[in-house]
Amino acid sequence: MDLETITSRQAIDAARMLHPYADARLNEKLGPLVVVRGRGACVYDEAGTEYIEGLAGLWCVALGFSEQRLIDAAARQLAELPFYHLFGNKSHRPAIELAEKLVELAPGRLERVFYTNSGSEANDTVVKFLHYYNNARGRTAKKKIISRQRAYHGVTTVSASLGGLPINHRDFDIPIPGVLHVACPHYWKFGRPGESEEAFANRLAQELEDLIAKEGADTIAAFIGEPINGAGGVITPPAGYWPAVEAVCRRHDILLVIDEVITGFGRTGRMFASELYGIEPDVLVLSKQLTSAYQPLAAVLMTDELYQGIAGNTAKIGALGHGFTSGGNPVSTAVALENIRIIEERGVVARVAEIAPLLQEGLRRFADHPLVGEVRGIGLIAGAELVADRASRQPFDPVGRVGAHVAQRCQAHGLILRAIGDTIAICPPLIVDEKQISTIVDTLGRALDEIQAALSRDAN
Ligand code: PMP
């Protein structure tokens, strides 16, 4: 794109909009890619160019961009009851039916559902509920939350504080006090020479144990984590990590909050990644693939124990002083119900498990590409981390420039992927077919080769 070919929509955007997660000055100069239409796993720009959406929008669109049944479910609900709220003692059919369905599907002992519009609001809500719960049971000091470096839990002041990415903290006066960050469970990057995955996991569990001893378990409410760090760079945990972390939390009466905003609803080849890693959450946070993101919705699921503490306090105070006007609105919850129905009827989760090796093994072809340090992932989520030097695992300086170039080359060849620093994230819609998976792998390979050739030219 350059100024001669920029369309009027791009020009208006460049003049009028401020984009999330973008360099605003770059957008003023170049304008955005304006997407006008979606079909299956693909989207189309103003010129009609087709792109495979290799990140499912933002890890969102499980059923692709044109699922008629989701459109019909939304239209039916709009005609019947377009809006109602859940405040006070009001409710509506889709919210009720979805709550029952989520409890039926959820791993472990989760029995109650609270709705929000976004993952960030959901994680904010979790922290507020933990405060409320611990105040109610007289443990007024038990408030701190332990999170991890490179975690992503959203962007509101509290959820960005839970996150462990510098870009979400810098110049926002974040993190707020009361959030502690332990190490990121990235074995390839932080494992010591000769250390096994299990030994690495145990070392991190010991780090957690030591932090709890230092701070005092009676000051810590919960540990929060994504089963697989998504926006932090698709980091799969080392073997034994989650059981070790869960055991430490249980020993110290620290609740386990599991954020499956990305991994929920089949992404890993299991309905929830908690099942994959044997985690039993006290709180589970869901969004994105919950509705295939056709409508904004997130859900906080909690154990009966947590609910009882909160419920008792609402009776004492007179009401729960928390809730979002459109949280759990009828159209969103109706779409979620239909989305889950389709996932179940079509065996989408089993299908992900079946075709995942095509993606995972295809990408591992690049494990010895000169630009690639590590390929990781499971199911239909993966990351390829680029390095300046494979042998020493030396990152590029500055981090992110080469990754951005690779993503740009992919886009030029009709594939949208996301560079997170120098990790290329791959997370296609769950309905992606075999041919599209091959195209994703081949296109990424072509982009890597082009950038490698350009770097070699620059070096000579
Ligand atoms: N948690 C996780 C694990 C996420 O990946 C995200 C979004 N990428 C969020 C929370 C925040 O969700 P939202 O953008 O809907 O606020």
Can you characterise this structure?
There is one protein chain. This protein is α/β, with parallel strands linked by helices and 460 residues long. The protein has 17 helices and 15 strands. The chain is 43% helix and 16% strand. The longest helix has 26 residues. Bound molecules: 4'-deoxy-4'-aminopyridoxal-5'-phosphate. 4'-deoxy-4'-aminopyridoxal-5'-phosphate binds next to helix 6.
Task: Find the CATH superfamily of the largest domain.
Answer: Type I PLP-dependent aspartate aminotransferase-like (Major domain)
What fraction of residues sit in β-strands? 15-25%
Quaternary structure type: single chain
The CATH top-level class label of the largest domain: Alpha Beta
Q: Tally the helices: what do you get?
A: 17
CATH architecture identity of the largest domain? 3-Layer(aba) Sandwich
Q: Give the N-terminus to C-terminus distance in angstroms.
A: 28 Å
Helix content: 40-55%
The backbone outline, from C-alpha atoms, is: globular
- Major sheet summary line: 7 strands, mixed
Write the layout of secondary structure elements.
Layout: H1 8-16, H2 24-30, E1 35-39, E2 42-45, E3 50-53, H3 56-59, H4 68-80, H5 93-105, E4 110-116, H6 119-136, E5 144-148, H7 157-162, H8 166-169, E6 179-182, H9 187-190, H10 197-215, E7 220-225, H11 241-251, E8 255-259, H12 273-277, E9 283-286, E10 298-303, H13 304-317, H14 330-345, H15 348-364, E11 372-378, E12 381-386, H16 401-412, E13 415-416, E14 418-420, E15 423-426, H17 434-459
This protein binds 4'-deoxy-4'-aminopyridoxal-5'-phosphate.
4'-deoxy-4'-aminopyridoxal-5'-phosphate is lined by residues 58, 118-120, 123, 152-154, 226, 230-231, 259, 261-262, 287.
